Amino acid sequence: MRNWDDYRVFLEVARTGSLSAASVILKMDPATVGRRVQRLEHSLGVGLFTKMPRGYVLTSAGQDLQKHIEQIESHERIARGVVQDTDETLTGTVRIGATDGLSNFVLPQVCTVITKTYPALNIQILTLPPVFNLTKREADMAIMVTPPKMGRLLSEKITDYHLHLAAHRDYLQTHGAITDVKELKNHHTVGYIPDLVFDSSVDYHSEIFPERAPNLSSNSVAVQMQLVRQGGGISVIHDFVLPFFQDFERFLVDQISLTRSFYMVRLRDDQSNDRLNRIATLLMDGIRSEVERLESSIL
């Protein structure tokens, strides 16, 4: 193999998507990092990166090389007997695609804990439903409500989560307590914009109110919560969101309850990537624990 240092530089640029970020990890100036990448591309006779507005994106040849180099890196760790060493530093950038509710109310806590333990790791949260493509490395992994059934993707269930009807306390005081399902037709509702629902499994409003559109709607869970806070109506709300809104009250809990699940979705080719495996495990453990903590706090 050619100069291993050049491959090490390539690997950090691939992981961080930035010459400057890689230079901090490698302790060399960005210009030197750039020259090392160019030297490796010249020696291999292929382009490894495409310069995009958001940083350096791997070409298909670059993706193949990264996979190959990380396999060598993993084999070296096995030879040194340190694969299970939990003190080993995680570095570089990892981009996670996640649903809006999870991105707003669970991942901030989980990712902050992870980066406190691994300060050289940079985590980027890409909120769905913007279209992204794991195969093109637009994200390294995704957390979805409906696991994909086709393609080069593999999914692993993380945890269940639950949803119930809730409203602002002032709204219920003004309009009266809701004690029967038949009373729901008399109330304004808040939910997703119907034609922007990216996954039918998160169309909670239609499941409870099949024959009506929400009076107030947004494609953002955070905006929906603000609409409810302003007294805009009742809404189907994640239980893990409610601890952030102490002035919200659930009702008809025994009559209406929804259960969904979060899944970790990754490229099949990444299953041998020790670094991404470790990050995925940290995220899944953190999400599972945080959802359980938040939901249990309202019981």
TrEMBL record:
<dbReference type="InterPro" id="IPR000847">
    <property type="entry name" value="LysR_HTH_N"/>
</dbReference>
<dbReference type="Pfam" id="PF00126">
    <property type="entry name" value="HTH_1"/>
</dbReference>
<dbReference type="GO" id="GO:0006351">
    <property type="term" value="P:DNA-templated transcription"/>
</dbReference>
<dbReference type="GO" id="GO:0003700">
    <property type="term" value="F:DNA-binding transcription factor activity"/>
</dbReference>
<comment type="similarity">
    <text>Belongs to the LysR transcriptional regulatory family.</text>
</comment>
<protein>
    <submittedName>
        <fullName>LysR family transcriptional regulator</fullName>
    </submittedName>
</protein>
<dbReference type="GO" id="GO:0043565">
    <property type="term" value="F:sequence-specific DNA binding"/>
</dbReference>
<dbReference type="InterPro" id="IPR005119">
    <property type="entry name" value="LysR_subst-bd"/>
</dbReference>
<keyword id="KW-0804">Transcription</keyword>
<dbReference type="Pfam" id="PF03466">
    <property type="entry name" value="LysR_substrate"/>
</dbReference>
<dbReference type="InterPro" id="IPR036390">
    <property type="entry name" value="WH_DNA-bd_sf"/>
</dbReference>
<dbReference type="InterPro" id="IPR036388">
    <property type="entry name" value="WH-like_DNA-bd_sf"/>
</dbReference>
<dbReference type="InterPro" id="IPR058163">
    <property type="entry name" value="LysR-type_TF_proteobact-type"/>
</dbReference>
<keyword id="KW-0238">DNA-binding</keyword>
<feature type="domain" description="HTH lysR-type">
    <location>
        <begin position="1"/>
        <end position="59"/>
    </location>
</feature>
<keyword id="KW-0805">Transcription regulation</keyword>
